[in-house]
């Protein structure tokens, strides 16, 4: 499923997260004309423990005590049952300096 319904809740913190060197992010630079863009790909895998309808995927950070959602991808939803493994692929593009 793809969605164009993305909500960024804290752009500054999301950029700080994306600036980090992390094995969770696959980064590359692409050029379009005179502009350079950074393409960042991330994969999130979740095994559901209960049956539900999943309609969002979220990117968040935690400091060990609190978690903050930085980006939400909203879609029409799909049913899951306990044990279902769901893989979300995030592709983010931003201007490269």
Helices and strands, with pairings:
Layout lengths: L4 E4 L2 H9 L5 E8 L2 E13 L4 E11 L4 E14 L4 E11 L2
Antiparallel strand pairs: 1-5, 2-3, 3-6, 4-5
Describe this structure in words.
With 97 residues, the chain is mainly β. It has one domain (5-95). It contains one helix and six strands. It has one helix at 11-19, and strands at residues 5-8, 25-32, 35-47, 52-62, 67-80, 85-95. The chain has a three-stranded antiparallel sheet with strand order 1-5-4. The radius of gyration is 15 Å and the shape is globular. The chain starts with a strand and ends with a strand. The model has no long low-confidence stretch (mean pLDDT 91).
Largest beta sheet: strand ordering: 1-5-4
How many beta-strand runs? 6
Order of SSEs: EHEEEEE
Strand content: over 45%
Shape: globular
> What about the largest sheet?
3 strands, antiparallel
Mean pLDDT: 91
Short description:
By secondary structure, this protein is mainly beta. The chain is built from one helix and six strands.
Q: What are the main properties of this structure?
A:
mainly beta; three-stranded antiparallel beta sheet; 63% strand; 97 residues; 6 strands
């Amino acid at each position: 499923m793809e969605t164009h319904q993305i909500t960024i809740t804290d752009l500054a913190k999301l950029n700080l997260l994306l600036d980090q060197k992390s094995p969770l992010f696959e980064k590359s630079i692409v050029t379009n004309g005179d502009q350079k863009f950074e393409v960042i790909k991330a994969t999130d895998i979740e095994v559901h423990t209960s049956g539900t309808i999943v309609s969002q995927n979220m990117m968040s950070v935690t400091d060990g005590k609190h978690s903050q959602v930085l980006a939400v991808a909203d879609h029409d939803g799909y049913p899951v049952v306990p044990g279902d493994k769901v893989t979300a692929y995030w592709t983010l593009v931003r201007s490269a300096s």
